[in-house]
Structure formats: structure tokens, C-alpha cells
Amino acid sequence: MPVSKTDFVRAVQCEKMLWLDAHRPELKIIPPEVQQRLDAGNEFGDKAMSLFGPFEETTAFKADGKLDFSAMLETTKRLLDEGYPVICEGAFSWYGNYCAVDILRKSENGYILYEVKNASAPRKEFILDLGFQRLILNKCGVKLIASMLVLRDDEEEGQVCVERLEKDGIRYKIVDATREAKILERQAGNRVFEFGKLKKKDAPAPEIPVGEQCEKPYRCWYFEHCHKIFKKGE
């Protein structure tokens, strides 16, 4: 079964999380404060699209409101063939595994990949996300010359960045995560098909006890479900 970048990052935190996403999504509980954070992150990402000037966004929807990934793939291919300078939500697929890139910016020697996060400092899970995207884009033949994080610039001391920008009253900083993302790209290549098996209709639920992964780096949306099961089994 195909794996998205969201699937991959969630499975690295806990494989059972991905299994539940695929087989028992009705058990998901998203606290209001978490949903607010997700909404704020989406808004931050939308505003960052124009950070590097005029852009084309590939996002498309079907009649039922779901993303039309096939249409996004076609639009992305056309924009790449035309040499468009900035593509947002560019869609890529390799053996069904897929991702939509926040910002893909053309440069003289290739493309720069940008992942936008509403946070003030890099985190491993952000770079893991970049690593997965690098895997898919490289397999699709996109020549990547750098992988960057676009973060909120809170002007914290001691943080190294390659560029600071301001757009519509929001301060951004660009952090070069190329070296770290290349390392995690290899991890993605080693595990993507393994994670895909968890989504198969007949895949058994992984037997993973509750533990640190239930809350790190994020509290799992199935926290209540798994902990209730654990308590019944004590």
C-alpha cells in the first residue's frame, strides 16, 4: 500500500499509529488545542507560499472534497516541464508512495526543497519529513541541490540560519537541513515499503505496548484508546 509523508512520520513515532490510521480511524481523538495548532500551521504554510515571489499552487480537489492527487501530479509535471520558478504543493509519486512539497524553488543548478513549519527551531521530525520528500523527489528524477526548513523567526539567540525574510508582517528564517535530511532519506528508503504493509487490509495490528512514543514528539491521537486497552490487560 502507498505511504504518504504524513504516514511515514507517524509510523516512525509508532507503527501502531499508522495501523490505526488505516484500519480504525474512528478511534482518533484530536483535542481542540491540537486542532488549533494544526490549523495555525496550515495558515502559516499558506502565507509562506509567496515568500519567494510569484508561485503556482497545484492543489486540486475532487467533487467529494478529497484531494485530487492525480490532477496535482499532472499539474506538477507541466510546471516542471515549463521551468516554473516556484511551485507550491507540488505532487510527486514513486511506486504509489507520495508527497506534496510545500515549496519547490528552481535555481540555476537544480531545485531547492522547502518544508514550512510553524515553529521557531528545527526538530528531528521536521527533518524526517524532508528526508521522505527527498527520497520521493530523487526517485522521480528531480535534481535537488538543497533541503531547507522555513521556520518562524522569533529572533532567538544562538540559532544559525542562512536567511531571514519578512512577508506581510511575518518574520521567517531559512535553516539549511540538507546534510541531516540526506541521512534520514536513507532511513526512509529502508522503511517505506515496510510501513506500507501496515496499511494492507489483512495486516495484523502491531503489538506495541504503551510507552514514551505515545507522547513524543507528539501526543498520539489514539492515546486514550491504547491506554484503555493497556489498563484492561493489567
Question: Please, could you describe this protein's structure?
Answer:
The chain is of the alpha/beta class. The protein has one domain (5-14, 37-192). 41% of the residues lie in helices and 21% in strands. The chain is built from seven helices and seven strands, in the order αααβαβββαβββαα. It has a seven-stranded mixed beta sheet with strand order 1-2-3-4-5-7-6, sandwiched between helices. β4, α5 and β5 form a beta-alpha-beta unit. α5 packs across α6. The longest helix has 21 residues, at 178-198. The protein is globular. It starts with a helix and ends with a helix. The mean pLDDT is 93.
Number of strands: 7
Shape: globular
Largest sheet: 7 strands, mixed
User: Count the helices. How many?
Assistant: 7
* Helix proportion range: 40-55%
Alpha-beta classification: alpha/beta
Summary of the model, kept short:
With 234 residues, the protein is an alpha/beta fold. The protein has one domain (5-14, 37-192).
Q: What features would you highlight for this structure?
A:
234 residues, alpha/beta, 7 helices
Sequence-ordered SSE layout with sheet pairings:
Blueprint: H1 5-13, H2 15-23, H3 32-48, E1 56-57, H4 69-82, E2 86-94, E3 97-106, E4 111-116, H5 124-139, E5 144-152, E6 163-167, E7 170-176, H6 178-198, H7 223-233
Parallel strand pairs: 1-2, 4-5
Antiparallel strand pairs: 2-3, 3-4, 5-7, 6-7
